[in-house]
């Protein structure tokens, strides 16, 4: 199976966008950054219907692509069913939180523009709403992903996916460095065992 259509999932701070950019360059894939589609000016999120429509067009207009981001409730069916490979960056929570902290401080200090003119501020994180506080959101995401992803991947509609689950950045880096061409999946030991539907 070729690495032609890849979706990268994982909690905040895992490095989804960074890995997607590396794979885009290495395998000549179109990089589809889901955050860039979802977040409009002034941190306004697209409606579900419009988001699904734009994601569908972005994927359909390219023969090969790598998409980074979760958006499981908004467009999982569109993205996962089109993909041939799913990469799950399942790193330790402490590492993800540290990365979120350093990334956030850097973005605020350097006033980094993200998507459509948006910038992070301390105000985004000085509350206890897990939908706005990225640290609380990351903790919740960590628990949800480990509970939900194996169950969802066992469903019949996702049996076509080649699933690679990396538990530490070293594994990801080793696999990426060994990936010499689009047909090479790298070393053994990173794939999830084949997950079959319960009714099969």
TrEMBL record:
SUPFAM superfamilies per the UniProt record, alphabetical: P-loop containing nucleoside triphosphate hydrolases (SSF52540)
Gene3D superfamilies assigned to the protein according to its UniProt record, in alphabetical order: P-loop containing nucleotide triphosphate hydrolases
Spell out the InterPro entries in the cross-references.
Answer: Cytidylate_Kinase-2 (IPR052922), P-loop_NTPase (IPR027417)
Q: Which domain of life is it from?
A: Eukaryota
In Swiss-Prot or TrEMBL terms, this protein is called: Adenylate kinase
């Amino acid at each position: 199976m070729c690495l032609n259509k890849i979706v990268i999932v994982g909690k905040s701070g895992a490095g989804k966008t960074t890995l997607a950019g590396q794979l885009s360059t290495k395998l000549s894939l179109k990089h589809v950054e889901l955050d860039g589609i979802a977040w409009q000016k002034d941190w306004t999120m697209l409606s579900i219907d419009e988001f699904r429509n734009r994601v569908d067009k972005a994927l359909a207009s390219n023969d090969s692509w790598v998409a980074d981001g979760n958006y499981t409730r908004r467009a999982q069916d569109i993205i996962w069913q089109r993909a041939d490979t799913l990469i799950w960056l399942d790193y330790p929570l402490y590492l993800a939180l540290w990365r979120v902290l350093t990334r956030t401080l850097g973005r605020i200090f350097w006033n980094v523009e993200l998507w459509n003119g948006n910038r992070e501020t301390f105000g985004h994180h000085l509350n206890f709403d897990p939908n706005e506080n990225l640290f609380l959101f990351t903790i919740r995401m960590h628990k949800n992903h480990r509970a939900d992803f194996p169950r969802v991947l066992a469903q019949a509609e996702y049996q076509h996916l080649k699933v690679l689950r990396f538990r530490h950045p070293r594994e990801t880096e080793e696999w990426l460095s060994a990936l010499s061409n689009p047909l090479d999946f790298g070393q053994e030991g990173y794939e999830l065992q084949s997950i079959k539907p319960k009714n099969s």
